[in-house]
């Protein structure tokens, strides 16, 4: 499967390839007659790998290097900061008539839309009523306002055909797409967070909502993040699992934590730079045992008249002899 993904330049392979892989795995000796591997499971595996490769390739300059950061209680530091109100970015759909309002003929409203505030693109995900898992939205096909309940949209999931289209509750089951975590972003995942977690089981491998119960921080190495997270899946409250960071997608509302962390690291680096010249100056000033600073005084030049000069002594017996001063 890794080789197939590389052959397609990390693009999603065609549906016929994914279905062939699902049939091949279902016919393997250990699964034949027991477990049927579904197309969704194969699709989710490829999507998970594509997310990981995309996150690895889109590293911004100056990205945090957690392994080289000073030991600070960063999660608690971020938790103590007042969190900004999370304003959900929703798609405004026109039309207030009851019933279904389809999109213009032959036109699909894409699942990737431009945000008017910062000129960026918003990607969406939706929760399927069939299995309770979350999938990327490829397009919004239509919307309808029901007499009772919330409005709904008809969505086409990325990588799926028309027979998989669903009507989804806009307020409850459509949201901005969760973000795969880079190795340096593990510090932004805290206990109590809602995350999207990749659950691999015997019968399925899907993305479900989960709550982080605990985070075990470990030193990073050449393989990347080694931290582990204890999560409880929301669709099955009794099931808990310890997962690595690569199986977790964080919510976009946690972006502010990374920004705060960047600012803290930059401030720390700037303060260290200002302290270095002061330390150099202090190193040149000796300190007495009492703690008082002793100024350095340059030595005064010696009086040339006090320097040692040869002295001629006249002995009574014979000729004079030259003897250095200070000799006895």
From TrEMBL:
Per UniProt, the ranges with Polar residues bias are 306-321
The UniProt GO MF terms for this protein read: chromatin binding
Q: Which residues form a coiled coil?
A: none
Q: Which Pfam families match?
A: SAWADEE
Q: Mind telling me which SUPFAM superfamilies this protein's record contains?
A: Homeodomain-like (SSF46689)
Where are its TM segments located? none
Domain of life (superkingdom): Eukaryota
User: In this protein, which residues make up the domain named SAWADEE?
Assistant: 121-249
UniProt xrefs under InterPro entries: Homeodomain-like_sf (IPR009057), SAWADEE_dom (IPR032001), SHH1/2 (IPR039276)
Identify the stretch(es) annotated as Disordered.
Answer: 293-328
Q: Output the PANTHER family linked to this UniProt entry.
A: PROTEIN SAWADEE HOMEODOMAIN HOMOLOG 2
Q: What is this protein called?
A: SAWADEE domain-containing protein
């Amino acid at each position: 499967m890794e080789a197939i993904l590389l052959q397609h330049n990390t693009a999603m392979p065609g549906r016929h390839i994914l279905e062939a892989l699902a049939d091949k795995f279902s016919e393997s000796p250990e699964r034949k007659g027991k477990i049927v591997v579904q197309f969704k499971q194969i699709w989710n595996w490829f999507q998970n790998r594509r997310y990981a490769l995309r996150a690895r390739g889109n590293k911004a300059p100056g990205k945090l290097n957690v392994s080289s950061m000073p030991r600070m209680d960063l999660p608690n530091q971020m938790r103590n900061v007042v969190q900004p109100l999370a304003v959900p970015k929703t798609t405004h759909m026109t039309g207030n008539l009851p019933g279904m309002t389809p999109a213009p003929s032959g036109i699909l409203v894409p699942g990737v839309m431009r945000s008017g505030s910062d000129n960026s693109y918003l990607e969406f995900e939706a929760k399927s009523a069939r299995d309770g898992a979350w999938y990327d939205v490829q397009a919004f096909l239509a919307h309808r306002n029901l007499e009772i309940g919330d409005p709904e949209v008809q969505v086409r999931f990325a990588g799926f055909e028309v027979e998989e289209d669903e009507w989804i509750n806009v307020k409850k089951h459509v949201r901005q797409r969760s973000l795969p975590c880079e190795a340096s972003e593990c510090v932004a995942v805290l206990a109590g967070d809602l995350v999207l977690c990749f659950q691999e089981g015997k019968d399925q491998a899907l993305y479900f909502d989960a709550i982080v119960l605990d985070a075990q921080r470990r030193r990073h190495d050449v393989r990347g993040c080694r931290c582990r997270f204890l999560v409880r899946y929301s669709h099955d409250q009794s099931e808990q699992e310890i997962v690595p960071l690569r199986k977790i997608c964080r919510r976009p509302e946690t972006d502010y934590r990374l920004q705060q962390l960047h600012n803290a690291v930059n401030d720390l680096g700037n303060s260290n730079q200002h302290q270095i010249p002061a330390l150099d100056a202090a190193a040149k000033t000796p300190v007495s045992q009492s703690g008082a600073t002793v100024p350095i005084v340059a030595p005064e030049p010696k009086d040339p008249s006090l320097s040692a000069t040869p002295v001629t002594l006249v002995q009574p017996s014979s000729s004079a002899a030259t003897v250095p001063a200070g000799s006895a």
